[in-house]
Design a protein that fits this description.
Largest sheet: 4 strands, antiparallel
Shape: elongated
Structural class: alpha+beta
Radius of gyration: 20 Å
Number of strands: 7
Strand order of the largest sheet: 4-3-6-7
CATH architecture of the largest domain: Sandwich
Helix content: 25-40%
Order of helices and strands: EEEEEEEHHH
């Protein structure tokens, strides 16, 4: 009998309303996982235990994750750290834990800001400066994701907050393209 190797993968679904997690585990031939469950803790919310279908992509909303009440409208999922633990056959302690950083809200703001910026109307030095500012913000977002993927939760949140602060400042700045 081959061994079980549990693994999860965060699936980009480009929806601010859903979290998709795929089972990337390997199981022995003809093996059926016993009692597969997924425990999820979203930043600022209590842990929830959810059903999990092995060998598939499982998608959850604010209702499943305990962020909104059952029967209320589905809300956007908040950015932040999501800690997940996939367990099968609890008696044998088969599990895998992962931490994902959700950045959909900040990424949406970044993209909207980027698309609204009329860099072509600014003069050369201002245009260059604005492009560098956007690159730096994106660098912090990517760094936050990398830190979360490497279990550096505090660093991940620090980088995310820095990116968010810089994006706020960038949005509130007005490109004075007519300055001499």
């Amino acid at each position: 009998m081959s061994t079980i190797s549990l693994d999860l993968l965060l699936i980009e679904n480009h929806s601010p309303y859903a979290l998709s997690i795929g089972d990337f585990s390997t199981y022995p031939t003809n093996y059926t996982p016993v009692s597969p469950t997924l425990m999820v803790v979203a930043t600022g919310f209590p842990q929830v235990t959810l059903t999990f279908t092995p060998n598939q992509i499982n998608t959850y909303t604010s209702e499943n994750l305990g962020i909104t009440c059952v029967g209320t409208p589905i809300e956007r999922l908040p950015d932040g750290l999501y800690k997940v633990k996939y367990t099968i056959n609890p008696a044998y302690q088969n599990f895998v834990e992962k931490t994902f950083l959700r950045v959909d809200a900040i990424q949406e703001r970044f993209n909207k800001t980027f698309m609204q910026l009329d860099i072509m109307q600014c003069d050369g030095p201002i245009r260059k400066q604005r492009k560098e500012e956007l690159s730096t913000i994106n660098f912090y977002i990517q760094g936050a994701i990398a830190a979360a993927n490497n279990c550096a939760d505090e660093e991940s949140l620090r980088l995310y907050n820095k990116a968010n602060q810089m994006l706020d400042q960038f949005i509130n700045q007005k490109c004075n393209c007519h300055a001499i």
